[in-house]
Design a protein that fits this description.
Strand 2 (51-56) and strand 3 form a beta hairpin. The protein is globular. The chain has twelve helices and seven strands. The protein folds into three domains: 3-70, Arc Repressor Mutant, subunit A, CATH 1.10.10; 91-158; 165-251. Helix 9 packs antiparallel against helix 10, helix 9 packs parallel to helix 11 (232-249) and helix 10 (197-215) runs antiparallel to helix 11 (232-249). The protein has 261 residues and is of the alpha+beta class. A four-stranded antiparallel β-sheet has the order 5-6-4-7, with no helix packed on it. Strands 1-3-2 form a three-stranded antiparallel β-sheet.
Length: 261
Amino acid sequence: MKGSELLFGIMASSSRSAFSVKELLRLCSYFDVGESQVRTNLSRMTARGLLVPERTGRTSWYRFSEKALKLRNNVAQGFRDLDWSEWDGKWWGVSFSVPDIKKQDRHYIRKKLSLYRFVSYNPGFWIRPRHKEEHLENHLEKVFSSTYCCALQFEFFSTPDEEEISALWNLPEVNALCRQGLSIIEESRKRFRDFSPEEAFIEKMLRGGEIVEILFRDPLLPDIFLPAGWSGPELKREFSAWNRELTDLSKSIFDMTIEEA
C-alpha cells in the first residue's frame, strides 16, 4: 500500500473530521512509514486537492476536501448492493472523441468512467445500467459537460445478453477475485484471537486495502446480468462484519493516539 493510500485509508476509516499531523505520524508508524514520508504525502495530497490543511495554535490539522469526500463516498458505494428490482431498463451512455494532442483529457475521461463502472461498448462509446440512486449526473458532471463528451440516457433495441455482459465487465475474473477476498477474510479471522490491538490495526488497513481493491471491481450490475454463484454480495457482507470486528479490536490504538497527541 502506497503512503498516500495508507493515509487516505486511515482517515477514511474513522468518523473524525480532522487529524493532527502528530496523530497521523503515530498511526503511520505502525507501518514503518517515517515522518518525512508522511509529510511528503500530506503535501502531495493537498496539492492534488484531497486534503485541506488547518492550523490551531501550534497544531497542524488535515481534513478531507469535498473532492476526497466524494472519493470516499464512491468507495463506500462499493460496500453495498443496489436494489435493481424496479430497474426501468435505462442505460447511461457517454460518447466522446478527444484529439490526439489532448491525451491527458482522454485519460481523465476514461479513468473517471471506469471509476463509476462504465465499460467501453464500442470505441468512443461507454455504457453502464442507470440507477437513479447513484446520481452519476452529479458525480460525473465534469465529464458529462465536457466539450469532448455527449452523455445520454437510452434503452437498447436489443439488450446485450448475459454472455456479452459477462465479457464486457469480465465477470468470471471479478467473481474469482471476490472468492479470493472471502478467503482472505476467512484466513484472517483464524488469527483474531492472537491479535494485539496493533496487529489488528495493521490487519484492518493492509488486508482491508486488498479487499477494497476487489470491491472496486464489482460492476454493481442488475441481478439479471449476474451469473449463478455470484460472490459479490457475500463478500460485501463478510467484509462489513470483518471490518467492524477489527475496528473493535484496534479501538485502543486510536484512543491512545488521540490521548498522546
